[in-house]
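#struct-queue
[09:14] JT: dropping the first one here, sequence first, then the structure tokens:
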Amino acid sequence: MTNLTDPELLVGVVGAGAMGAGIAQVTAVAGRKVFIYDQRDGAAEAARKAVLARLDKRVVAGKMSGADREACARRLQPIERLEDFGSCGLVIEAIVEDLEAKRGLFRALADIVRPEAVLASNTSSLPIGAIAVGLAQPDRFAGLHFFNPVPVMKLVEVIAGPDTRRDVVDGLIAFGRLLGRNPVEARDTPGFLVNYGGRAYATEALAILNENVASPSQVDAVMRDCWGFRMGPFELMDFTGIDVNYPVTEFVHRANYGDPRLRTTFQHRYMTETGQLGRKTGRGFYSYPESAVHPTPDATLVDAPTGRVAVVDPDGALTDLLTATGAQVISAENEEAVPLLVALWGEDCAAFCARTGTDHRRLVAVDLSGDISQRVTLMTAPGGDPVMRDSVAALLGQARAVTVIQDSPGFIGQRIATMIANLGCEMAQLGLAAPADIDLAMRLGLNYPKGPLELADSLGPDRVYAILSEMQRLTGDDRYRPSAWLRRRASLGLSALQIA
């Protein structure tokens, strides 16, 4: 096999779109000569110009020397024929996500390159083994999945097919490191790591919207302020394009035989069909441009916060929160008509009142999961007294923003966070990658503040398991079915990252 870290390595890139140009850029910056080809007339040369324009900006910003820019320009060469790849030791495909198109390309390349050359696909979802069907020397073929924008995103997934040799996988891992990426080895399954693991963030947000629990702006604010995500799920879908997000979600769901944990909603499809695709069309879950006024996630606070509250289910964290506001916390048995507060985990207000006999009109539930220093989420049961709710919102809103939602098992944050954690645990159970690599992939590929297994540990695997089990019980939906990986570790008091 060709040494993929050889300083004299010649790399070929097929496809001069955003991905192909990005791969060519990072390869040239890493000191390797790159041939780039596209069947569209002028596309390869246009990609080269775009790469050099980006490098010019780096020079102006003082992030690259002029000499290094010129060296990159010399190393990056457009070619006009596939036959010119004959001297390449590695050829990376970055064309349209079409199985037959990729198969045809690799069969042609197999007749052009040397027998020791490595062939790799940048496919984001198509099975590597399926692309390799009918390929001469399938043992030298693998997946090498970069993320867009390639020069910025530091993750690359390396995926072996059923015939891929171990030295090919190791060589591509070494090549990824040469490019300054963090390579993770992933199993050849639908969506690999990131496109599989990334489903929970958006689909649970869509489920919350579908149930009329909260608005997009409320969901986004909670996930930013309380959970540390750079963008809320609806902001993110608008940013990447709903026409991009929806087909991947549908593909992963179908490919996993309809696993309800991967299910999306009708509105996801509806927005695709009606052209409400996000920023690119000026309208998605929000309206654009940026100057457009978006609905506020913040509750309107009344001028008269309550000064007396009762905690109906002993909870030290909730009592500390209330005491810090200056409120007087009295006994729940007191007949005085004060708000009754509870911190719920996986349960909704209606279920809690039915289980405990608490007066649903006075009950206000508080979500203590996540960081509540900037924002706190409240909900009440159907028929709850709005005066009670508003007085509590005013009390807690003296030091933070308040989001008020409809009754829901798990509020917003618990639902989304535990679904992310559960899907990460399922990835570990299926052996899609090593647990630490799953976390690394989610942090680097999706900018998650914590990997899903790390997130499970931060909440406590036992608590994540309890929340999911309660949501499954109350909704009757196997969407919330806990992973066996999670159940075992929660039962034994182990970390979600525990391998064996």
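[09:21] JT: and here's the second one, same format:
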Amino acid sequence: MTTDHPPARGFALGTWAWGDSGETGDGQFGTRLTRGDLEQVVDKARAAGFTLWDTARVYGMGRSEALLGELLGDGPRESYEISTKFTPQIAGDGEDPMREMLERSLATLGVEYVDLYWIHNPADVRRWTPCLIPLLQSGKVRRVGVSNHNLAEIRLADRILGEAGFRIEAVQNHYSLLYRQSEQAGILDHCRAAGIPFFAYMVLEQGALTGSYDADRPLPVGSKRAQSYNAMLPKLKPLTDRLASIASDQGAKAADVAMAWALAKGATPIVGVTRPRHVEGLVRARGLGLTPEHVAELEALADSAEVNTRGWWERDMVV
């Protein structure tokens, strides 16, 4: 069964960092956020016409969902879309762990349904995929997707759902200039051929591709992203310098070009937003035009950096 309103090509607004507590050493991003900061982000996003917000139960174990629900809740439900996730690794041992996690997410978000519900990681495709079917039938989930699945797992999940008249309607994987395994594994080609929107997370590599950080201006000390990226920042300088130079020709910033690259590849970037200026960057990126020559040059520079940004939770997609 298909829907008449698939996720629009453009951007999803990510709230992974909203789950950080703000305490040093307690979070992926080391981000200190106030409710006032995030209210401004939501207002800016609404004014710019962005409607799809991405979160997960595991982001701060409910902190991200709670903040998002509070800040979106003053608007009509039809004015925004929510994407959240079932994470098998934190599933309980009850009779129906997926339904139980969804119910907790709905209560925390303060909504009666979610527009897009993902299986966050492929712990057991044959076990967990069928659990999506009754949630779709209940109306509490409008569409379903899979995240961090390889091509064989995507096809298997689609077959399982197809037997009940449903289908995979979105795929979400790590995809950036520095990490293109979903392309190399044929996942992007499969999504194009099947008409499945491909969502790209970590397009900016947690800030490493924004041009805002380098050896002299490292990522926040004590954050997990600093541990992952600070050592590689010198190797990324030729790439981030070229992102910045392409951006300057169009009145934009380096991060905007990295996002525009993902759009040029046919992906829908999920981009973390914690400041109003981040939303302004999405607007600029949406209007940028990258030539095939730009795309090829940026990918060559990325390859020459010879860095590996695969997350600890990710498996090799090229099998």
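[09:30] RK: nice, looked through the second one.
[09:31] RK: Residues 233-248 form the longest helix (16 residues).
[09:31] JT: good to know. Residues 254 and 265 are 17 Å apart (CA to CA).
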